[in-house]
Amino acid sequence: MSFVSIEQAGYGVPSGGTILDRIDWTIGEGEFHALVGRSGCGKTTLLKLVAGLLAPSTGTVRIQGEPVRGPGAQVGFVFQAPTLLEWRTVLDNLLLPVSLTRRPQPADRRKAEELLDLVGLSGLEGRYPSQLSGGQQSRVALARALVTEPPLLLLDEPFAALDAITREELQNDLLKLCARHRTTVLFVTHDIAEAVYLADRVAVMEGGQLRHALPVPLARPRGRDVRYSPRFNALCLELRHAMDGAGSGVALERAS
Amino acid sequence: MVRAASALLLVLLLAGWEVYCRVAGVSALVVPLPSAVLRTLWDGLAGGYLLPHLWVTTAEMAMGLAAGCTVGFLAGVLLAEVPVLRRLFYPYILASQVVPKLALGPLFIVWFGFGMTSTVVITALICFFPLLENTMTGLQQVDPNKRELFRMLRATRLQTLLRLKIPSGLPVILAGLRVAVVLALVGAVVGEFIGGRQGLGASIIAAQGMMDSTMMFALFIVITVLGMIVYQAAAGLERWLLRRPWKG
């Protein structure tokens, strides 16, 4: 049973440009999919269609069989920037998704503190975002998206601005958090190794179309040894070739 | 150290002024002696002559500031939130601000009579614009990512206004308040020039009528000190409201 199904979804702008062209893709429940491509290939737009932040101009996006008509409670979203409210404490920021619908209860508070603990920020709940490092801010943003335990998590290059070591830590945190409730994930990135390390399946986008799909048959849980194994490197290379192939595909189309 | 030097500079300037006026025999009508000004000021404060005037001007300023800022803030919120209203009203509001409010003073005297009301109205009109302008700017400058976050969390329009736009625009709004406070004092004093019976501005006109330059200088000092106090109060309020680290 597919959790998310994207059926012939297209997105164009009024000036006539096509950003997404008839995308078909399905994500099974509990699966972790990554979407890779160069900047401007439409991957963020596709993510926003799934989130309900944008409406497709053709086709539909379904979550659990229901067409998406707008942002829904079952979806958590992590933006490129941490997007924290600077005038609120870490705990208030974490509880924002709750406090916008009802008054947070002690149980919500406990859940938020548990999440902070899981991402290694326990004791920092009273700090303000400007008092945190970039990695810590990204952790808060990640925890905030998961505080309502949404069954589907969408991430838009959330770790792109972090240094390599911090990024690896956050990737591990993300895998750990998503494994807890078997969260279904769609992760947008331009980092090949990140996509292979995190995902069960990687989709390659180019010029508004899905060009290639690559399954990643690496065992879970994945750790540092996976990251430096020959198998991992072979998969990265394969994905790289797929992306190059996608590029030449466009070149061929233009030539013909 | 710099503070001490700053105070010393004042003392030196006053001493130079005093000595020059005495030596050159400058008429007290043109430039009074600093010592005479301070004596007049002291007599006015201790004798109670200045206090009712000080009170009237402070009250006019406070009422004008409160009314102008409240209306300016609410109008700013409304125009920022409803683009149609913004396009409809903004040209008129702008035009109303280009008209020098003090030039409307004589008309206000016809409408509201001599006394406090017309001065309060002038002060309110002067304070209205900085608050309107800064509230509109502040509310529209919200980070688009944060707007999208609130959309994603299905926040209502009111929630987005109260919990995102106003807090994130607060530094800009408070900067407008600081400008309004200074303008409020100018508005109150100059408003009294035109239509006041009482107050520091009316007293300046009265002193001018009696060619009492010493009293005029004493009033300048009172007005300056009053302005510095309210400015510091506004800056203090701003620091207190923004005591949390605001910028990321």
UniProtKB/TrEMBL annotation, chain A:
Domain of life (superkingdom): Bacteria
Single GO molecular function: ATP hydrolysis activity
Pfam families in UniProt: ABC_tran
InterPro entries documented for this protein: AAA+_ATPase, ABC_transporter-like_ATP-bd, ABC_transporter-like_CS, ABC_transporter_ATP-bind, P-loop_NTPase
CDD domains: ABC_NrtD_SsuB_transporters
Keywords: ATP-binding, Nucleotide-binding, Transport
Gene3D superfamilies, per database record: P-loop containing nucleotide triphosphate hydrolases
SUPFAM superfamilies in the cross-refs: P-loop containing nucleoside triphosphate hydrolases (SSF52540)
The ABC transporter domain, residue ranges: 1-232
Family statement drawn from the similarity comment of this UniProt entry: Belongs to the ABC transporter superfamily.
UniProt protein name: NitT/TauT family transport system ATP-binding protein
Native source organism of the sequence: Azospirillum brasilense
UniProtKB/TrEMBL annotation, chain B:
Domain ABC transmembrane type-1: 54-234
A GO BP annotation: transmembrane transport
Residue intervals passing through the bilayer: 61-82, 103-132, 172-194, 215-234
A Pfam entry, by short name: BPD_transp_1
Keywords, alphabetical: Cell membrane, Membrane, Plasmid, Transmembrane, Transmembrane helix, Transport
Localisation: Cell membrane
Domain of life, source organism: Bacteria
CC terms in the record's Gene Ontology section: plasma membrane
Gene3D superfamilies named in the record: MetI-like
Membrane topology term: Multi-pass membrane protein
Family: Belongs to the binding-protein-dependent transport system permease family.
Protein name (record): ABC transporter permease
